[in-house]
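User: We ran a pulldown and think these components assemble together. Before we commit to crystallization trials, I'd like a predicted model of the whole complex to look at. Sequences follow.
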Amino acid sequence: DQQVKQNSPSLSVQEGRISILNCDYTNSMFDYFLWYKKYPAEGPTFLISISSIKDKNEDGRFTVFLNKSAKHLSLHIVPSQPGDSAVYFCAASGSYTGTASKLTFGTGTRLQVTL
Amino acid sequence: NAGVTQTPKFRVLKTGQSMTLLCAQDMNHEYMYWYRQDPGMGLRLIHYSVGEGTTAKGEVPDGYNVSRLKKQNFLLGLESAAPSQTSVYFCASSYGVGARGETQYFGPGTRLLVL
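Assistant: Here's a predicted model for the assembly, 230 residues in total across the polymer chains.
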């Protein structure tokens, strides 16, 4: 049972345009969401996060939007740059899980930014 | 700060052999995690630890054991390797509690091939 879903395995965007990566979740107990970026042969690196008490969080070119009623979040990258080409993972956690801050990951979306 | 480091980077095992993967972090994080990443599956939690001397099972713990004898180290053991354990293994750590406690920081990964 995939609780965090990234339905688009890949996305291609032109340099300078907006990249929009989507993520859906099924568990209403999730209250914290994160995006990670992963280059080949490297570990995932934290990009941006959002708490369920907010509906938007911005950090430079990266903005995450959360729609709790739709159980949907999205990552916007504006403007997209070639260095943004990577696999992006959506992850979620919930305080209901107990003492450990366990993350549930989506399957990832490969973003390619073309010149 | 080296962050999270993993040893070795790559290993080839024969079915039935054993090995230990070492993870070390220098961020004084309480929580540590082991994940495996397989194509199309995202990252799946194997085992985790909420502090020195503690361990707990994650989503896919079968065939693996872990130990956390020191706060900065988290070891993942395979007692009798199977081809199904061919994967990329990532270690991560986090503060676990407090502001942004859920944010996990990942190592570069260990690529394991079991023949």
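The mean pLDDT of chain A is 93. That may be worth checking against your pulldown data before setting up trials.

User: Thanks, that helps.
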